[in-house]
Amino acid sequence: MGAYILKRLLSAIPVILGITIIVFLIIELIPGDPATAILGAYATPENVERINRDLGLDKPMVARYFIWLGNMLQGDFGRSFSLNRPVLDEISDRFSATLILAGVSFVLCSIFGILAGVISAARQYGFADKAITFVVLIGISIPSFFLGMMLQLFFAVQHRMLPVSGMKMIYGGGDLPDILWHLILPATALAAVATGVIARLSRSAMLEVLRQDYIRTARAKGVNERRVIYGHALRSAMVSIIPILGIQAGFVISGAVYIEYVFEWPGLGRMLVNAILKRDILLVEGGVVVVASCYVLFNIMVDVIQSLIDPRIKT
Fold first, then answer.
1. If one looks up domain 88-314 in CATH, what number appears?
2. Residues pairing with 79 in the sheet
3. Which residues on neighbouring strands pair with residue 85, listed in sequence order?
4. Within the chain, which residue ranges are assigned CATH 1.10.3720.10?
5. Going by DSSP bridges, is the β-strand pair 79-80/85-86 parallel, antiparallel, or unpaired?
6. What is the pLDDT of residues 103-116, one digit of tens each?
């Protein structure tokens, strides 16, 4: 197992390196001059030249990439000009908020998605199967940010049942119940699409297992149906379901960007949107690399868990 984990970690190095190249090139290809965007009305030729020199934008693109990559490998992500503080400090302050939102959303979509898929497969073509399929199709079809705005409008604006935005109350908040209270709407909106995808694919995995001979044998021997479904079929289907969870974890992490902006959640997503609008290059590059690296590392964790369930994967 140790050799397999080491192999997966080593395989992540070129992936993360490729991510840094793609992120850097995308930022470079964005139209406009960062120095002009920074200076605004003070963008005289002399000031633009000075800003380009201070930011290293006067150097060739390849040289700038390797300087940026070398600094990141040493833990120096640069300094945000819009916030006037180190990029790594800003990311560290906001990472926990994104982790809370993405973590709760992932738990919700995993539990309800798998449960819906299992019930739908166990009641194939029945009322429960048709009802779950209908709800799942609606959930998959609605964009998360639009669902979030509709939840805000109904539960926060019209009925004032839940807070409309933020992570805690402005005055006297910040404890666990307060954070959970503010999490309900954004976590629900973020988890909706992933829940539908997990439910559909879990249903397919369960139906495939339920057609196996050993399931029919267990039923013929009089084994309780609940034990057949949850004790035998679901255990085998989890080998196919776990990779789906890894893919949806990436969706949850990336989807947090616009959900955080809609709900003014103080995480990496909101930071990235503001940084893009202000053309804060180093903050955008650092934030995207951290989010993408988290996605890669999470998929490695999923592969390790899957190999523990099915040892054949390691070979």
1. 1.10.3720.10
2. 86
3. 80
4. 88-314
5. antiparallel
6. 999 999 999 999 99
